[in-house]
Write a structure and sequence with these properties.
By secondary structure, the chain is an all-alpha fold. The chain has 4 helices and no strands. Helix 1 crosses helix 3, helix 1 packs across helix 4 and helix 3 runs antiparallel to helix 4 (78-90).
Length: 93
């Protein structure tokens, strides 16, 4: 391979880890919604989708996303509010 295409100085960020309860847990969907927003926040939605099994905008998580938006609004976390609203738009809301 040509050295022009090798970046030996590139840093590779490790994939984020999401702490999720078991899929059978009644808390799984809420944790998955949070993980998807956290993944989007760091610019790595794909890792959160892989960890949760949910796609960005999956309508199943709408109630949990709405809860997270209210939580972010109470904390004045405008970035998470925007991400939550983007999720809802993708979900068709």
């Amino acid at each position: 391979m040509s050295r022009a295409f090798v970046n030996e100085d590139a840093t590779h960020e490790p994939e984020p880890r999401y702490t999720l309860p078991s899929r059978e847990s009644p808390r799984f969907d809420a944790a998955a919604a949070r993980a998807l927003l956290e993944g989007a926040h760091i610019g790595n939605t794909q890792s959160a989708e892989a960890a949760t099994g949910y796609d960005w905008g999956d309508p199943v998580l709408i109630p949990h996303i709405e809860d997270l938006i209210r939580e972010a609004e109470a904390l004045d976390d405008t970035r998470m509010v925007r991400l939550g609203r983007r999720y809802l738009l993708k979900a068709g809301c």
